[in-house]
Amino acid sequence: MQDSQIIRTEYSDVMKKSYIDYAMSVIIARALPDVRDGLKPVQRRTLYDMHELGIRYDKPYRKCARIVGDTMGKYHPHGDSSIYDALVVMAQEFKKGMILVDGHGNFGSIEGDGAAAMRYTEARLAKITQEAYLADLDKDIVDFIPNFDETEKEPVVLPVRIPNLLVNGAEGIAVGMATSIPTHNLGEVVDGVKAYMKNEEITTRQLMKYIKGPDFPTGGIVVNKDDLPEIYETGTGKIKIRGKVEVEDMKGGKKRLVITEIPYTMIGAGIGKFLNDVCNLVETKKTTDIVDISNQSSKEGIRIVIDLKKGADVENLTNMLYKKTRLEDTFGVNMLAVADGRPETMGLKRIIEAHVDFQFDMATRKYKTLLKKEQDKKEIQEGLIKACDVIDLIIEILRGSQNVKDAKACLMNGETENIKFKSSISKKMAGMLRFTERQATAILEMRLYKLIGLEILALQKAYKETLRKIREYKHILSNQKNMDVVIKEDLDSIKAEFAEPRRTLIEDGEEMVYVEAKEEAKEVIFVMDRFGYCKTMDRSIYERNQETVDSENVRVLPVMTDDKLCMFSDTGNMYQVKVAEFPTLKMKDKGIPIENVSKFDGKTETILFMLPASGFTGKKFLFATAQAAVKIVPGEEFVTANKTVVATKLAGEDKLTEIREIGTEIDGTRDVVLQTVDGMFLKFQLEEIPELKKNSRGVRGIRLEKEDTLEHVYLPDMDGTAVYKGKEVALGRLKAAKRDGKGTKVRL
User: Fold this and answer.
1) Where do runs of H (alpha helix) occur along 27-125?
2) Per-residue confidence at 667, pLDDT binned at 50, 70, 90?
3) DSSP state at residue 286
4) Domain 354-497, architecture per CATH
5) Catalytic residue at 133?
6) Superfamily per CATH, domain 39-159
7) Average of per-residue pLDDT values in the chain
8) Average confidence (pLDDT) over 533-549
9) Which of 10, 108, 124, 503 has the fewest CB atoms in 10 Å of its CB?
10) Catalytic pick from 120, 322, 542, 575?
11) Domain extents for the chain?
């Protein structure tokens, strides 16, 4: 290859351009809806293909596999799964404010069950889709572009006559941005659009007199009404939604809680998780009022029943469900859509404004097309009426003509040279004819039965109707007010036929106050095996199996259920976990990994010391590292609310070797012994080790030889003997020295 054919460029520039091109493709052509029709490309193409296939709401259902295959082959060559998934969502009543596809078969459930394979399901267009989304496509009201292989034409946008972006909402993740638009009530949105058309200076707060807020298909309660104006002004924010809980009386004075509506965010796997969360509240004894829970939901709606024991605090339990489960959740709003080919975060008014502009554009194009059609019809009708008055002459022209060309020339321009007439009068009259080309063509194609008297009357009647329509269309196109009337009438008709009552309640809900019942504290035994699995057990169980428990576990210590357990690792960290977070289990139960309740990493750390948080006050602790740094730290240093704290400062790759509780008194009568890996022992008075803060490194306890490290710390008054290489060493016989010495090697 010649150098002249090589284009030299900066690699980073190529990557930057390529990535931006890819990102924009995902944003514009996949993930984000268009503000005009509120549809993503895959949704738009699927609906248009169903329209082209003639799968109307009043026609039989067709296999989804046929629809998907046709859409993929003609318009959307991005895989069948994306098309079918879009089709399924448009048919799910619990996801859309208004379903756009009428599904037949298993299209999934609100509890997260997936739809059946496309070969088993059938679909057709919903009535509203046919009448308000796809009508008038033949009237040149939207632009068409070539498809991916330029063998077909597809609309740039569907002629949707309602603000679908608001009615059905949208969810999508693009590159570097995402959209999340809640669903709204059709009737309210129509009223909001009409209010904007009446006064374009209307504010967002004024619009909200008509559009109260989101209207989720699952119902529920929006409880932060005061936040909605700002959310609709900016296009971003968080909507707090709650499920609807009803109280039913049962026999014997008992009550039950019945959840009839759920937050929109709970659909799918969220329902199963909610049931598990309620069961967990019972298992962890957060509540003892729940007797049973059952999911009695069906196609008729949500019904989750929680049976309560007699005398249960219903209000407090309800508040607990809101606080501890997803029965109260937040819906993140980010009203991002494509406007004029660019992604834009829009408020409520901006979306309605874009919709109204689109409606005016469509209506203008529609009535211009209709006007042109009627004007063409008028021209032909006038020609036919005129022809009926001179039909004998026209017949004579046709009989005297050698071909259609001569006859047409005579009708249009009065050319009589090539036509034989019966009389000169006829020829003279023929020379005066001046029909237009369309009129001449219509005359030549006219059938003889059109000359019947009644047919002529029908023609004259149709002509009058055409004149009326022309006047009507010109009147509509003459000014904006007339156009307003037409658009509003259309919106009213759609609202009258398809609008449904609001499902979601909008209110300023009070913060739920849940008073957690405190269980009386009791002593349990914490155990941890060598694999890091932890649990607590009743003291009675431990005492019956003490020998087995002590032999099978590396950590066994008594703790109170209302206390915290503090664990020190060799990396110098202290992890603090509530005892209540460890499950109370039976002897044979394994427990849970310590990593599940703390940030401890068993792969890189080792636990050296454990103590209940209540055991630190008034006590002192001796810290020693592998590099022989020692210090005494008051226990109060570790009294904290943090789950993870740095218990000591380490130098370089140094590690914590040992932590010893040394009580409260440190005087000249107490000694400490340091032992290294190589068997060097150094005995000195404990009071030589300074008392320091936890964030200090300490002082040198023993001078280490090269590559030697500190292994053990002994307290002679507590330990008596040390063990080195399997031999006991009497600590009392060791010669006392000073801190920071080299120590002596013990002879075995």
Assistant:
1) 41-52, 64-74, 80-91
2) confident
3) S
4) Orthogonal Bundle (1.10)
5) no
6) Topoisomerase II, domain 5 (3.90.199.10)
7) 89
8) 91
9) 10
10) 120
11) 39-159, 244-326, 354-497, 518-559+571-601, 616-748
